[in-house]
Design a protein that fits this description.
about 400 residues, alpha/beta, Aspartate Aminotransferase, domain 2, 2 domains, 7-stranded mixed sheet, 4-stranded mixed sheet, 14 helices, binds pyridoxal-5'-phosphate
Length: about 400
Amino acid sequence: MSLEALDKALELELDALRVEGRAKPPERVIVGVIPPAGARGPRYRLKGSEREFIRMNSNSYLSLSLQPELIAAADEASRQFGVGPGAVRFIDGTFAPHAALEERVARFVGKPAAKIFNSAYTANCGLALTISSATTYWIGDQLNHNSIIRAMRIAGVPSANKAIYAHNDMAALARCLEAVPADMQRVVVIFDGIFSMRGDCAPVDQIVAIAGPCGGRFKEGVVTVMDDSHGIGAFGPRGRGTADHTGALPDIVIGTFGKAFGVNGGFIAASRMVVEAVRQKADTYIYTNPLSVADCAAALRAVDLCDGREGRSRLDHVQAMVVRFRRGIETMGWPSIPGPHPIVPLLVRDTPRTHALVQHLYNAGVLAVGLTYPVVPRGDETIRFQINAAHTEADIDHVLKALATFTG
Ligand SMILES: Cc1ncc(COP(=O)(O)O)c(C=O)c1O
């Protein structure tokens, strides 16, 4: 037995990805974190480089992952319950920190109940497996995250049972709802709260207003589902995400503990019945060990922090840094997509130039992500900057200075 033949076949497939420009570069390895000092935020050391880098590509918007209270909570939970659950949830793998986190995050997003998952990715898959049926029709935004698209495939949603509306186009959403076949009994409108490549948000108030009145046409109604992975904790006046920002709460909210909360894991928050159905039907919940109690305890502490004075002050700081950064790139004449979210896209609109700018930033000690053709259409090439609560004014100015010296 040998993997020789399979290796050869896979090599050809990966070569094709490289030729198409879709292959991922080698992963950089972080080998050290240098704590903030004076006017400087944290810096990162990469394997094979002497340089210290500012991360402008982290989802950890509130910068909580090194927060001592979170680390202490994770340590304490591990000491009390052990580092692994020893079983899946329904075979006595449910520990007090799992239950506590579910209760806490449900309360945070304003829903009666929640179930936690290993990630938001598996939460999306779990939801689709739970609520899809032969007479369920799915309507989604064109720019929905890969995990939503993959979830529908895993749940076996046929193409006759789904429609896509142009990004944030409410007239197109209304047309999709109009066109739902009459034999459908349940309609799901599903969308990202924050679109991770652009930093813009879904007009949740309009989506809810458009979907609501259509409910009566279908036996099991029209359900709105928002994956607010980039919004939860990072957006809205109280950090409660895109619902907080738009003033409208969809029926089901999916989120992650792996971005603003700085830990790991995902959740579905909804009615008690939906959450019980998830527990009974979502394979990505049922047949896999849950998050460690360390993750749960740290995430619980993160939600508590976010929900209080500390969270508010971090959000205020992130906002101030977003404004400073946006003002800087505007002054230099770089176009962006406007918005208050800490994702700030810089529209370069050219693939070689984007690569050159990412490299220029790297040489100046700045880590940022370039989105180039064919991952995005020609003309939409972008560098995605992400501001977080650990960035200082000096850090933002350092990045702006690096941008100002780009001559490509
Ligand atoms: C909208 C959306 N959903 C889900 C995910 C995945 O989150 P997690 O890392 O918790 O699986 C992401 C992150 O990239 C995302 O942007």
